[in-house]
Write a structure and sequence with these properties.
Helix content: 25-40%
Structural class: alpha/beta
Strand order of the largest sheet: 9-7-5-2-10-1-11-15-19-20
Radius of gyration: 22 Å
CATH superfamily of the largest domain: Adenylosuccinate Synthetase, subunit A, domain 1
CATH topology of the largest domain: Adenylosuccinate Synthetase, Chain A, domain 1
Number of domains: 3
Number of strands: 20
Bound molecules: inosinic acid
């Protein structure tokens, strides 16, 4: 099974790092195919905790070649900051490869992200403020700067001039900010060129050749299905393709090389930023999940919105991504609850919807229809076989599996790297 894709099912922060970890030594390459430093995964190895924003989590696994694909937008300052932080802790990052076609986030993207949000007022998206949306907007507008441009000063200057021509109008005339000069951007970008040169490559070619040799490539999706620019809760989404189709586009590897598509889903739901969230909780149960699950953003530190498990969302993610497996994370957080509600359908203005409504207004009005499951009180963090879980926990997992239409292959039962129950091998 050489091509394995990992995507988030809900609104992100499902614990993808854990699945990547689990595959660990069986992976030769890990490619991040979308997003930028808006992502955040925490990887726990022994007593050490690593919070990564931009680098693929495979950077921590010896023997793995980590790749930043063409679908990623790269803030180079953040890139070197993360590299240096890992090096300081004794980790080798010298194998990192970055696509020559990946786009660059610069100062004007970050500024525009923040001022746009401020101007949106009540309608704000709640972005991470890292310049992600504006960098992708430049890419689609065909005024973006790509990694390869950094190695040709003439070309770079022309492109920066072209981009700033447009962006400065917006900054000065609409947002009342100072104009950014071509020279300041040139100085910033050129200062990184020499260090970047050995890392920048035709990564689509490297990955395709690796797959042809029978090596295993993990395609690591940032954000998640419901934040996908096309298939998420638009406009409250990120600006990239976070679903499995994005794995091909954002890595330069053909779709027929993707053999296994693994969805990561939390045993309850969280969301950061604005937008519809039918099962959101505002009561003590919500507080319980937030504090027990430590639901605070890895990138921004914001408290996450929390709610019960939403089965139509997983069913939707199964369909959109073609999921072959699910990894159910954080089951242990539910321990101690007397009953656990699961959303099985929605009521939209008196009409029952079994599936996620395509119409934005309908989804905003969707009221969850719940089915209640019995909780369990036993500590499950040491359990490693499904049949050793309390019967109520088994029932909960099997019910989610039946509702989602995909097998639950792995279950996370604790924060430790080893705290998983494997029902089906993800590389079989
Ligand atoms: P942006 O990606 O910074 O443009 O933010 C757009 C939306 O995606 C906001 O609601 C963010 O909170 C959300 N978002 C972006 N990255 C992540 C992530 O890694 N986890 C959860 N939410 C995210």
């Amino acid at each position: 099974m050489p091509g394995i894709v990992i995507v988030g099912v809900q609104w992100g922060d499902e614990g993808k790092g854990k699945a990547t970890d689990l595959l660990g030594s069986r992976i030769d390459w890990v490619v991040k195919f979308n997003g930028g430093n808006n992502a955040g995964h925490t990887v726990v190895i022994g007593d050490e905790k690593y919070a990564l924003h931009l680098l693929p989590s495979g950077i921590l696994t010896p023997g793995v070649t980590p790749v930043i694909g063409n679908g990623v937008v790269v803030d180079i300052e953040v890139l070197f900051h993360e590299i240096e932080a890992l090096n300081a802790r004794g980790l080798d990052t010298s194998k990192l490869k970055i696509s020559a076609n990946a786009h660059v986030i610069t100062q004007y993207h970050r500024t525009i992200d923040k001022v746009t949000e401020r101007f949106l007022g009540k309608r704000m998206i709640g972005t991470t403020g890292r310049g992600i949306g504006p960098a992708y907007a430049d890419k689609i507008n065909r005024v973006g700067i790509r990694m390869q441009d950094l190695f040709d000063e003439n070309i770079l200057r022309q492109k920066v001039e072209g981009a700033l021509d447009q962006r400065n109008h917006l900054l000065v005339k609409v947002f009342n900010r100072r104009a950014i000069t071509v020279d300041e951007i040139m100085t910033e970008l050129l200062s990184y060129a020499d260090r970047l040169r050995p890392m920048v490559a035709d990564t689509g070619l490297l990955l395709s050749e690796a797959l042809d040799r029978g090596e295993t490539v993990l395609f690591e999706g940032g954000q998640a299905t419901m934040l996908d620019i096309d298939h998420g809760t638009y406009p409250f989404v990120t600006s990239s393709s976070a679903t499995s189709g994005g794995a091909a586009i954002g890595s330069g590897v053909a779709p027929n090389k993707l053999d296994r598509i693994v969805g990561i889903v939390k045993a309850y739901t969280t969301r950061v930023g604005s937008g519809p969230f039918p099962t959101e909780l505002f009561d003590a149960s919500g507080e319980f999940l937030r504090s027990r699950g430590f639901e605070f953003g890895t990138t921004t530190g914001r408290p996450r919105r929390v709610g019960w498990y939403d089965a139509p969302i997983t069913r939707y993610a199964t369909r959109i991504n073609g999921l072959t497996d699910l990894v159910l994370t954080k089951l242990d957080i539910l321990t101690g609850l007397k009953t656990i509600p699961v959303c099985v359908a929605y009521d939209v203005d008196g009409v029952r919807f079994e599936e996620v409504p395509v119409n934005q207004t309908d989804f905003h009005h969707a009221v969850p229809i719940y089915e209640e499951f019995h909780g369990w009180s036993e500590d499950i963090s040491g359990v490693r076989r499904f049949e050793d879980l309390p019967i109520r926990a088994q029932e909960y997992v099997l019910a989610l599996e039946a509702m989602s239409g995909t097998r639950i292959s792995v279950i996370g039962v604790g924060a430790d790297r080893e705290a998983v129950i494997v029902r089906h091998d993800l590389t079989d």
